[in-house]
Write a structure and sequence with these properties.
Blueprint: H1 9-24, E1 29-30, E2 41-46, E3 49-56, H2 62-71, H3 74-80, E4 84-89, H4 95-105, E5 115-116, H5 118-127, H6 129-134, H7 136-140, H8 143-147, H9 155-169, H10 176-188, E6 190-195, H11 201-214, E7 218-222, H12 227-231, E8 239-243, H13 260-272, E9 277-284, H14 285-294, H15 296-300, E10 307-310, H16 317-329, H17 335-341, H18 344-351, H19 358-364, H20 378-387, H21 390-400, H22 403-414, E11 419-420, H23 421-439, H24 447-455, E12 460-464, E13 469-473, H25 476-487, H26 490-499, H27 503-510, H28 530-540, E14 546-552, E15 558-565, H29 568-578, H30 584-604, H31 612-620, H32 626-640, H33 649-661, H34 668-691, H35 696-713, H36 718-733, H37 755-761
Parallel strand pairs: 3-4, 4-5, 6-9, 6-10, 7-8, 8-9
Antiparallel strand pairs: 1-2, 2-3, 11-13, 12-13, 14-15
Helix pairs in contact: 9-11, 14-24, 18-20, 22-23, 23-26, 26-28, 27-28, 27-29, 29-30, 29-31, 30-32, 31-32, 31-33, 33-35, 34-35, 34-36, 35-36
InterPro entries: nSTAND3, P-loop_NTPase, Restrct_endonuc_IV_Mrr
Domain Restriction endonuclease type IV Mrr: 5-60
GO biological process, one term: DNA restriction-modification system
Length: 767
């Protein structure tokens, strides 16, 4: 007999919906919980045939609280005037109770059988065991789970843990990781649950433990050494072994006792060959990768091929909202705090936050953690905590990672986004060389490869194609943590500054903007000498790292599709703007040195003509370097004067930009040649770009370009504007191509929750 106290109001409504749909053979619509106008579920095939179901989860308040709430619903039901009105509640009801309730809602509630109490719902669960199975929190938290271990040899060791897990189970939300892990356990008999801190590894493992207890397995909790599992092993007895954080939490050097890695492999070999044993382990992904590097036996045995990695991407939008709802619903937060979250903007900002994690949700749902926070402040404090993930990563960064791994993360942080593997290697080696010189740090052979193995799959991710590998942070909150870390660690900031290899790194750490943690023109410049910053800019301005462009597949997987680089001209423009806060004399000297690189490029013919006008505009904004700017314009003018050679639209756009940046630099007769060609051949110049435009935005951009030509060169391009409008109409009439056949064989994707559904999910907090 279930009392349903482990279900939130939202979970209870879903259970009632599934049971009644099964019993009545119909599909029920769900409506907003809370102040819903008297409707939770509805079946209305026609205007004169409607069934309305009201769900009242009053297990804690009992019949008196239920009756009080129902009396307030009477006027709403009279306005709805359904043909049939049903009530489902988690409160036990006697025949007299049902008669009293039916009297409130006559004539809409016609028979006592349309009032379902606790006993009725349990009866339906008996009739429909598949519904019971799907609502996992019912049987995971039932008393039968504990009854199955009361008389076992491991009762004293395990019962407290199982009781604790059952209390937590009401907060759990199943997602794809649960079923992925079950598949691994069925295939290999053991499973390593791996992932980043706070992502839900232990919670998933505990739910898998309860799942197997319900199937008749005797639980064995391994606390400190795998030898405990061997001692309690029973032949021909179904047992599930659970080893949480089997590689430890406190450091990165020595995680296993002597020869324990071999003992773990021996135990894995045993369970794989015996149907009666199952083995569940958890660890943090970066610690697992370290262990495979340090312990040769774990690496050679391909120990982690039965690994289930939990990622933030494993949680759908609906999952994340449901996790938040469960934690808040069952928390000791005041009703005022709970109601404050229902506001749409706050709720969606939390669910969709890039740093969302179950650990932060758990922390912010504890009344002891927000003791000084008023209800009005609560949503903003919640979001502020998500904005600052320091607590999530600080301990792992300081205590779990090897020194070389910490260095790798700092170097990766210096790039703005994904970086090509070989460029990352060069930047990492430069940082480690300088770090070794200044801090007497030890360096190991093949250090880069070793660290990459340690971090991949946990803190960093590698996306590959046949020719290149892109490296990026696995979780965006790691970058946020490192930004704050670098803002208060000037020694490491100086080493990073002095070791920069690519201007992309310089741009990544010295782009002027205000961060969450400091209000200075640079991200790590607090406390650094200007000379160090300027030296880094001059040293790197000519070096551009390759930026991998990722193609995202329909299933969310990514692969490298292309590599691009910023131009020297783009780097120079950034350097000029970055130098705004320098004294005028120092700034002038710095910019002149930077422009010398551009002069050499112009002379050798390697300049990017599309970006050169931006350099001229930026240089003209600094009056102190007027001589250098005039020299640059004089050199550049020669490159744009050969207008007879122009064939592509991009050449005309570059000329337009140069004329705007340096008026009167090009002689009038040259401009007249361009004006004549635009009038006579404008349609042909634009034709290729118009014909290949795939959407209206591209066509709008071409239309704006034509308008800019009209202003700069004093011409009329009406024929171009007309052709662009025709192309827009052609886009609207274009027939969509059928989907690729290969999609037919892929698993069907469940529709995720939209904004309205998420807000309605939290309506039960307003009851």
């Amino acid at each position: 007999m279930y009392d349903f106290k482990t279900l939130s109001a939202y979970d209870f409504e879903l259970l009632v919906r599934d049971l009644l749909q099964k019993k009545l053979g119909i599909v029920l619509e769900s409506f907003k919980s809370g102040r819903d106008g008297g409707v939770d579920l509805r079946y209305a095939p026609s205007a004169d045939d409607s069934l309305v179901v009201q769900c009242k989860h009053y297990a804690e308040t009992g019949y008196s609280g239920l009756l009080f709430a129902l009396k307030k619903e009477n006027s709403k039901v009279n306005r709805l005037a359904p043909n049939r009105y049903c009530i489902a509640t988690s409160v036990p009801l006697s025949p007299a109770n049902k008669q009293e309730i039916r009297a409130i809602f006559e004539p809409h509630c016609k028979i006592d059988e349309d009032i379902l109490g606790l006993e009725d719902l349990n009866n339906l669960l008996t009739l429909y065991p598949d519904i019971e199975r799907n609502h996992y929190k019912l049987w995971l938290t039932s008393t039968t789970v504990l009854e199955r271990i009361v008389h076992s040899d491991v009762y004293n060791q395990t019962v407290l843990l199982v009781e604790s897990i059952q209390r937590k189970a009401r907060l759990y939300v199943q997602n794809s990781s649960f079923f992925d892990a079950l598949k691994l356990l069925r295939s290999y008999k053991y499973c390593i649950i791996s992932g980043n801190p706070g992502i839900g590894k232990t919670f998933l493992a505990e739910m898998l433990l309860l799942e197997h207890i319900c199937q008749g397995f005797e639980p064995v909790v391994v606390r400190s050494h795998i030898s405990e599992a061997f001692k309690l092993l029973k032949a021909n007895t179904k047992q599930v072994f659970y080893y949480d954080d089997f590689l430890g939490q406190t450091g990165w050097e020595d995680k296993l006792e002597k020869n324990e890695e071999q003992s773990i492999l021996d135990f894995v070999a045993y369970v794989r060959n015996h149907e009666h044993a199952v083995f569940i382990l958890t660890t943090r992904e970066y610690i697992l990768q370290q262990a495979r590097t340090v312990y040769e036996k774990l690496h050679a045995a391909d120990f982690d091929h039965a690994k289930c990695i939990i990622e933030l991407g494993s949680y759908t939008r609906r999952n994340k909202a449901h996790i938040l709802l469960n934690h808040v619903f069952f928390s000791d937060l005041t009703p005022e705090h709970k109601n404050a979250l229902v506001r749409k903007k706050s709720l969606l900002a939390i669910v969709d936050h890039r740093n969302y994690s179950p650990r932060i949700v758990e922390w912010m749902s504890g009344v002891q953690n927000i003791r000084d926070c008023t209800p009005a402040e609560y949503p903003n404090v919640f979001i502020s905590t998500l904005n600052d993930p320091e607590n999530l990563w600080r301990h792992a960064y300081r205590n779990h990672l090897s020194p070389a791994a910490r260095s790798m993360l700092l170097v990766l942080y210096s790039f703005q986004g994904s970086v090509d593997l070989e460029d990352l290697r060069e930047a990492f080696e430069a940082f480690r060389r300088l770090e070794a010189q200044q801090l007497s740090a030890m360096r190991a052979a093949n250090e880069f490869t070793t660290v990459l193995d340690e971090l991949e799959g946990s803190l960093i991710r590698c996306e590959r194609n046949a020719y290149s590998v892109a490296v990026a942070f696995h979780d965006p909150s790691v970058r946020d943590f490192l930004e704050k870390h670098m803002s208060i660690n000037s020694d490491q900031a100086l080493i990073l500054c002095d070791s920069l290899v690519f201007y992309d790194q310089f741009r990544g750490v010295f782009t002027p903007h205000a961060t969450l943690y400091q209000r200075n023109p640079t991200r790590i410049g607090e406390g650094l000498e200007q000379s160090a910053i300027l030296s880094a800019a001059l040293r790197t301005v000519t070096r551009a790292a390759k930026k991998p462009i990722l193609r995202i597949n329909w299933d969310g997987a990514a692969r490298v599709s292309n590599l691009i680089c910023t131009s020297l001209e783009q780097n120079i423009v950034h350097a000029i703007r970055m130098s705004n806060d320098l004294p005028s004399l120092e700034r002038a000297s710095f910019i002149v040195q930077v422009l010398m690189h551009e002069e050499k490029r112009i002379i050798t013919g390697n300049v990017n003509l599309s970006d050169l006008p931006q350099v001229i505009s930026a240089a003209k904004s600094v009056p102190e370097i007027s001589d250098a700017c005039e020299r640059l314009i004089e050199l550049a003018t020669r490159l744009y004067e050969n207008t007879d050679d122009y064939e592509e639209l991009k050449q005309y756009i570059a000329l337009k930009d140069f004329v705007e940046a340096a008026p009167n630099a090009i002689e009038d007769d040259k401009i007249q040649v361009v004006r004549t060609r635009l009038i006579e051949e404008g349609y042909d110049i634009f034709y290729f770009d118009i014909s290949r435009a795939d959407d209206e935005n591209e066509l709008d951009e071409l239309d704006n370009t034509a308008a800019a030509f009209e202003l700069t060169f004093d011409v009329s391009l009406d024929s171009i504007h007309e052709r662009i409008e025709e192309a827009k109409e052609e886009l609207l009439t274009r027939i969509e191509e059928p989907p690729n056949d290969w999609l037919d064989d892929e698993p069907r994707q469940t529709r995720d929750a939209d904004d309205t559904e998420i807000v309605e999910m939290f309506g039960c907090l307003s009851e």
